[in-house]
Amino acid sequence: MASPVLGLVGCAAGGVEQILPRLVEPMIERGWQVAVTLTPTAATWLDATGDIEKIEQVTGLPVRSKPRLPGEESPHPKIDCYAVVPATSNTVGKLALGLADNQALTQVCEAIGLGSVPIVVFPRINAAHARQPSWGGHIAALTRVGVRLVMGDDVWPLHEPRSVPGKELPWAAIIDAIVSAVQRP
C-alpha cells in the first residue's frame, strides 16, 4: 500500500517556522509523504531562514508557493489529506469565501469544491480575531462542508493579541486530526 500524502499548507503565522520538526518530520516518521505549499509571505519568511531548502531535503519534493506554468505537471503527488497549519484568520476567511488568490489557497479551495479530500485547518488566531463579526460565519461555512477544524479551549485557548508570545502550537492535536481524517483499510 502506498504511503498517504499530506498536502501541508503553511501560512505566515507564529509556528510556521516549526513545521519541519513538529509536523513534517513526525508525519514522515508515521509513514506519510509530505508535500508542502506556502503562502507567499510564509515562503518569504522560510526562505530567509533557509528552511525551504531543509524542507525540500527532508521531503524530497519542491516547496511550492507560486503557480505552475500552463502545460507544466504538478510537482506534487496526488494529495490524500490537506492540512492548513498554521492558518491565519485571513486564510480561514478566504477559504470560507472561496477566494483562491495564491497557490496555497487555490489547492485547498479546489479540494473543498471537490469534497473528496479531507481537510484539516488549525486557525492560529487570538481572541480579537475570534470577535471579528465575520469569524463565526467563516467557521460555520467551513464546518458545513466537512473541514475539520482543530480549535477550542481544550486545544488552543484564545488570548488577547501579543499577550502570550511564543505559545506552542497544539502539534499533537493537529497530527491526531490529520491521521484520523484519513481512514485507510
Describe this structure in words.
The chain is α/β, with parallel strands linked by helices. The chain has one domain (5-67, 76-181): 3-Layer(aba) Sandwich (Rossmann fold), CATH 3.40.50. 41% of the residues lie in helices and 14% in strands. The chain has 8 helices and 5 strands; from the N terminus they run βαβααβααβααβα. The protein has a 5-stranded parallel sheet with strand order 2-1-3-4-5, with helices on both faces. Strand 1 (5-10), helix 1 (19-29) and strand 2 form a beta-alpha-beta unit. The protein is globular, with a radius of gyration of 16 Å. The N and C termini lie close together (10 Å).
**CATH superfamily caption:** Flavin prenyltransferase-like
* Broad shape: globular
Instruction: Average the pLDDT over all residues and give the rounded result.
Output: 95
Order of neighbouring strands in the sheet with most strands: 2-1-3-4-5
> What's the β-strand tally?
5
pLDDT < 50 runs, ≥5 residues: none
Taking Cα atoms only, what radius of gyration do you get, to the nearest Å?
16 Å
Oligomer: single chain
Percent of residues in beta strands? 5-15%
Question: N-to-C SSE series?
Answer: EHEHHEHHEHHEH
Distance from N terminus to C terminus (CA atoms, Å) equals: 10 Å
Count helical runs: 8
Biggest sheet features: 5 strands, parallel
Tell me what the CATH architecture is. Answer: 3-Layer(aba) Sandwich
As for the number of domains, it is 1
